[in-house]
Amino acid sequence: MTSHSLGTLLRMNNITEEYMEFLQGLGMNSSQVCRVTDEYLCGEEGFRRSEEIINLLKKYDLSPNSLFTTYNNGIIDPKNRAENLLRICRQMNWAKRYGIQYILCHVGELPENDEECCSGFVASLKQLAAFAAENQQYFLFETGSIPLESLLKIFTEVNHPHLGYNFDPANVMYYNLPDSPDKMLDELAPWIKAVHCKDGVRPAPGQQFGKETVLGEGETRFAELITKLLNSGFDGPFIIEREIPIGPEQRRDISNAVQLLKSLGV
User: What pTM did the predictor assign?
Assistant: First the structure.
């Protein structure tokens, strides 16, 4: 049986010995890190802090294979694009040092009827994909507010093997995208390189955004999605994301998520 990469999303300041022991005990074998700020990027002190964190993850066989980048307001809006591209590239180089292959980013809101902005965004994506290739990495969109039709157009225009998609079925619900998670999985399959294992429901009447739920209890039909992915030969990382504070409820939900994923063959 194939041994899949299974981990959870970890903020750098939450990586403690006790918590890593708990995650290892659940059967996890990898992780995704986020909040790699200047505290970890700058100077000898940043290098020391980074080494301490990475060595702790290695101690518990939870070495990271993916990084969720830290920035402000994405890379679509020209006002933020240059600064955030630089921030992302610095984090990609940090990730390269530790053999982290998958780089995730919420790219921001895609404007309507602004061809200049969109063409600049596509040009930036081409450069990011080329930078990722040089680093032996993949640059991945996180599932956000961009609908399927626009995503397909962007991926086709950039046309680079190191640009991909992180599939987060709960975010399809949260952002109330017009297509189902199942259809997005089918259409975006060639670009899906990693998965956030998260569930959710669409917005209630009068609400803008949906809500996250316990894995398997939302509207994504999560078990069917994972079964389809596994049957397709998907071999990227499965990362559990439970966006509530660390504590008894979060630990219980992560533990149950691991059991569900393992029952599905992850």
Answer: 0.95
Residue-range definition of the domain harbouring residue 128? 6-263
Q: What is the pLDDT of residues 10-51, one digit of tens each?
A: 999 999 999 999 999 999 999 999 999 999 999 999 999 999
Residue burial 165-199, b: 16+ Cβ < 10 Å; e: rest: bbbbbbbbbbbebebbbeebbeebeebbbbbbbbb
**What's the CATH code of the domain at 21?**
3.20.20.150
Contacts of 85 (CB under 8 A, 6+ apart): 75, 124, 127, 128
Q: Is residue 214 part of a domain?
A: yes
pLDDT surpasses 80 at 3:
no
Report if residue 1 sits inside a domain: no
Other C-beta atoms within 10 Å of 86: how many? 11
**Residue 1 in this model has a pLDDT that exceeds 60:** no
Instruction: Please state the domain count of the chain.
Output: 1
Q: What is the pLDDT of residues 241-252, one digit of tens each?
A: 999 998 999 999
Asked whether residue 165 is assigned to any structural domain, the reply reads yes
> Does a structural domain hold residue 240?
yes
